[in-house]
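Anyone have tokens for Dihydrolipoamide acetyltransferase component of pyruvate dehydrogenase complex? Sequence:
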Amino acid sequence: MPVVREFRLPDLGEGLTGAEVVRWMVEVGEVIAVDQPVVEVETAKAVVEVPCPYGGVVTARYGAEGEEIAVGAPLVTVAVASAGGGAADTAASSPASSASSAEVERPLVGYGVVESRGARRRRVGAAAAPASAPAPVAVAAPVAPAEPVEPVAPAAPVVVPVISPLVRRLAREQGVDLTALTGSGPDGLIMRADVERAVAAKVAAPAPAAPVAVAQDGVVPLRGLRKAVAEKLSRSHREIPAATCWVDADATELMSLRRQLNSTPGPKVSVLALLARICTVALARFPELNSSVTEDGSGIVRHSAVHLGFAAQGERGLVVPVVRDAQAHSTEQLGEELGRLTESARSGSLTPAELTGGTFTLNNYGVFGVDGSTPILNHPEAAMLGVGRIVAKPWVHDGELAVREVTQLSFTFDHRVCDGGTAGGFLRFVADCVEQPGMLLRQL
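Reply: yep, here.
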């Protein structure tokens, strides 16, 4: 007899306690396979798809789009076959079926299967699937008792074709009714520009001829990424006694080296990649800065590997992706990894693993057209190098006034892990490498 299994929101790692429903990927009554993604959720780290470890018929969904669901709370219930090597047996043997799923079984009575979108494609391809693939629940339902209790499925929401979950979220936050929009994309797909035009039209619309009400201040709740950033920065400011030093550096030779490297065949080298390479060399010279203070403040953890974080602007706001083992990468490899992570940040597809575990941060705030900054450290890291814009300025070079490409470097550090001499030595070494990049050859 088929039974209903309850799949709960699993632990998504990194101490996350909940997630916001962005988009449901299945409907009630739909036949799903083992490990098929059923919902897209947004955590404080990233937007992720959550697969269900059970194959069968979706009998219920919990949580509306935009609603926060706690870890361990129900997500969906699925009717699975309990005998004959059906979906229940397959799901039970799946690695994804773990204690975190917190399953609940109960008999299913009088529930018919609806073959919905995607089901026919899976049924046709079932012959080519491996033996372990789950079989859909049979259409024939078991004989019901005299007074069967029919499960009541919630009404399926109107599905509007939208280019991405981020666009759907933008519409929700701005109060735009997607069902009233005509998409400008292929087959009427609603693009971000369509939502932005609707928002602009609302702003530009003339006020109704009615008495003017007294405007009230609005409160924007801290949620998702913004909430995580606020908590992390507040903790950093509260716990870390940070100090900042800075220096102007002549980057003319560094820019000349970059142009020379990019004039030859091969991947292009970015300024950020060159600065990342300088950071790894400098941290090998000053290893105490690649560290963090223990939770109780009683010791300093020295990290053998440099997991280099860098600030990147995405649709969800400012994020800090991490290049793992940056010290083991060549300059070209650093450039490729920085580029890949930057694109993922822009598209909002960074995973939680790509956003955690950094030991040192490189902050290129020069892309915003500013010269300097005194940033808050990325807790629990002990140091951050900031780089301002590279701009032509008057500069004394070889005893004469000349126009050179100059940048301001700033270095913010946890004063518990080192004194000013160490921090100043690190920053001076970085500046020397920027001014005379040939120095790096002595370190490689």
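The chain has three domains: 3-128, 165-203, 240-443.
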